[in-house]
Amino acid sequence: MKGLFALVVALALVAAASSQALAVEASEAPGAAPLAEGTVFPDVPLVGRITPELAASLGIASQTGPTPINTIDAEILIVEIFSMYCPFCQREAPTINALAGLIDKRGLANRIKLIGIAAGNSDTEVDIFRKKYTVPFALFSDASFAVHQRIGQVGTPFFYVLQKKPGSGYRIIHTHLGVIKSPTEFLGTITTKAGI
After folding, report:
1. What tens digit of pLDDT does each residue of 49-107 get?
2. What distance in Å separates the CA atoms of residue 132 and residue 20, rounded to the nearest whole number?
3. Which end of the chain has fewer CB within 10 Å, C or N?
4. DSSP letters spanning 137-188
């Protein structure tokens, strides 16, 4: 009987550890209510310093003030919501950089763009994150959480994949909370859902 009890306890501990492993892939956000797939993404303002080269790659004017997200010239726009203080975002930065490289390598850089919006982070904090992780795509600040509130107060990292619809801005075609395990699989999901 003691052996059976020990086995039950061991199985319970393994199950608890497995569920904790799943729970640690994203920082929680109280009150999170992600926007639903199929809905129009709000035309939120993008704020922060980006290089003239990155601005040109997005088809926007050099960043001097807030830029509406709908002005980005992309068929598909991947928006990562992150925070420099999120340990999962830090751990995942090389994977997202690899995703950006994969988009370029597959010749999709003119159709698929990738940006990051830093929930609760200032321009200075975003610059620190950009430099530390050598981020090759545009990162924007959201120090006051104004954008974060409009897009569902999601945990981090969180991904909205948007597709441009003529006359209605961007529509959400895919969402993902937590760490991306495989850039190849994630890009495959995006291209399938976008029909490209």
Report:
1. 888 889 889 988 765 678 899 999 999 999 999 999 999 999 999 999 999 999 999 99
2. 28
3. N
4. SEEEEETTSHHHHHTT---BSEEEEEEEETTTEEEEEEEEES--S-HHHHHH
Type of residue at 78: I
In a domain, 180, yes or no: yes
Residue 111 phi, psi (nearest 5)? -105, -35
Closest CA to 77 of 123, 32, 126, 40: 40
CA distance between the termini of the chain: 59
Burial (0-12, 13-18, 19+ Cβ within 10 Å), 33:
exposed
Domain contains 28: no
Closest CA relative to residue 112, chosen from 26, 189, 31, 22: 189
* 3-class DSSP assignment, residue 109: coil
Please check whether residue 5 lies inside any domain of the structure. Answer: no
Look up the CATH number of the domain holding residue 87.
3.40.30.10
User: Which residues span the domain enclosing 154?
Assistant: 39-194
Q: How many CA atoms lie within 13 A of 195 on its CB side?
A: 4
Residue 30 within a domain: no
Give the predicted TM-score (pTM) of the model: 0.86
